Amino acid sequence: MSASIHVHEVLNYLKAQSVSEQALVDWVSGQWGTSARFHTCSQNGLSLSEVLVFLRRRKKILEQAGSLVVNEASICQH
Predict the structure, then answer these.
(1) How confident is the model at residue 41 (pLDDT cuts 50, 70, 90)?
(2) Looking at residue 69, what DSSP letter applies?
(3) How far apart are CA 43 and CA 33, in angstroms?
(4) Measuring CA to CA, how many Å separate 58 from each of 4, 5, 14?
(5) Long-range contacts from 24-33, C-beta under 8 angstroms, 24+ separation
(6) What does the pLDDT look like over 44-64, one tens digit per residue?
(7) Which of 18, 26, 53, 74 is the most buried if burial means most Cβ atoms within 10 Å?
(8) Which pairs with CB-CB distance under 8 Å and at least 24 residues apart come from 27-36?
């Protein structure tokens, strides 16, 4: 099993460029594979789909014109 990736890796990617959800899935698959697992400050073992639910629920990412964008006001600074 590969090491867990902090969700900030996904957020940093989205800060640099807004992309569609499918483009994000493709990028994550290319970076870490389709079975990549992620963690947050409070949760472990998340799949990418669970990460997206987590980020949307906490309004850390928003969808604008078909692209995912980071809501800077909701991001912790560590």
Answers:
(1) confident
(2) E
(3) 20
(4) 21, 19, 16
(5) 24/48, 24/52, 24/68, 32/2, 32/5, 33/2
(6) 999 999 999 999 999 999 999
(7) 18
(8) 32/2, 32/5, 33/2, 35/2, 36/2, 36/5
As a whole number of angstroms, the distance between CA 35 and CA 48 comes to 9
Assigned token pair, 78: 């560590």
Note the pTM of the prediction, 2 decimals.
Answer: 0.87
Give, to the nearest 10 degrees, the angle between helix 8-16 and helix 48-57: 70
Q: CA 76, 53, 49, 9: dihedral to nearest 10 degrees?
A: -10
**E strand or H helix at 15:** helix 8-16
Please say whether the dihedral angle defined by the alpha carbons of residues 64, 67, 72 and 75, taken in this order, is positive or negative: positive
